[in-house]
Amino acid sequence: MRKIALAAVSGAALCGMLLAPAGNAAFAQGKTYTLKVALFTPERSSTSRWFKMQEKRLAEKSGGRLKLQNFFGSSMGPMPRHYDLARTGVADMAFFQHGVTRGRFPLTELFHSPYLAPDGHKGSLVATKTAADMKDRYLAPEHKGTRLIWVVFNRPSGIYDASKPIRSLEDLRGRRYRAPTPTDVAMLKALGGLPIGLPATDMAESLQKGTINGVITDPIGVFSFKLGEMLRYYSPMFVSVISFGLVMNPKSYDALPKDLKALIDELGTKEAASEMAMLSWGKDFPAYTKYMDSLKLERIALAPEADAAMRAAADKVMAGRIAEMEKKGLPARKAYDEMKALAAKYAAE
């Protein structure tokens, strides 16, 4: 197991810490601990803003003793390996997407349920608060070999089509869409669509070639992968969120002194997770707003009967998935019911 990098504080650094504000006096002496953080997102992305903010905050709160060294853009390894980078100690912490290792986190994947959270900015916050309440009982135990800090979510996704407005179940039949989660795959099949599995980085090329008719993604996905010029219609169908986790290697955590552990614990609060969700998917970049406003995307208003039919299909799909999980001995029904109740509470706030 690779140990956290320890460095003796230089004379110059020590002098600086002795001049630190009184609130940091407890952290003004001792060794420096550097935590390597693996991120699959590029440094310029909206999700990376939270990690850069924590890098600065932890240094200030610890009087320079606790540092984050962020490795952006999958520079420590490919995206599907990020969770294991922290589990094995290659990284001290890792930011990862649960959907790229499908089936590994089954109770967490229940959050990908259609219609769990409201569409738009608020959906990300509703799902994140719900996960914070359920973390210790349901989510942390299945993140084996790591210390789960938080689970956060993007804005709910919908169907973006390149050429056809999708207003009904009949419109969906035979249409090919890139589907990011197993639940999205199951929903598309149930509704007569054709789910296509491919990396997010291949969406633009596949749209250009016409091998897919559209994508299931959120607005940030449209912006990040510059898909807007190839898409014409958005339909708020079986809106669903995608989960992202932050985990820490247990030995890296245990090697920290008590006062620095407390700073890491602060990263895992509901408030910290909510800040991450809103900073990444709630507060827009000016560049994002300018880009989305420049597009000629038409939002399709679903007829009440079409919306009701899709929600009924979602209930059937989730009932099937829950039954499969229960057969494996997982408390899926109990977790799902609690999840729905908590999400409804936070959506009403």
Give me the secondary-structure category: alpha/beta
| Low-confidence blocks of residues | 5-28
Q: Work out the number of β strands.
A: 12
Distance between the termini: 45 Å
CATH architecture assignment of the largest domain: 3-Layer(aba) Sandwich
| Assigned CATH class of the largest domain | Alpha Beta
Count up the domains. 2
Beta-strand share of residues:
15-25%
Q: Report the CATH topology name of the largest domain.
A: D-Maltodextrin-Binding Protein, domain 2
Share of helix among residues? 40-55%
User: So, the CATH homologous superfamily of the largest domain?
Assistant: Bacterial extracellular solute-binding protein, family 7
Radius of gyration: 22 Å
The coarse silhouette is: globular
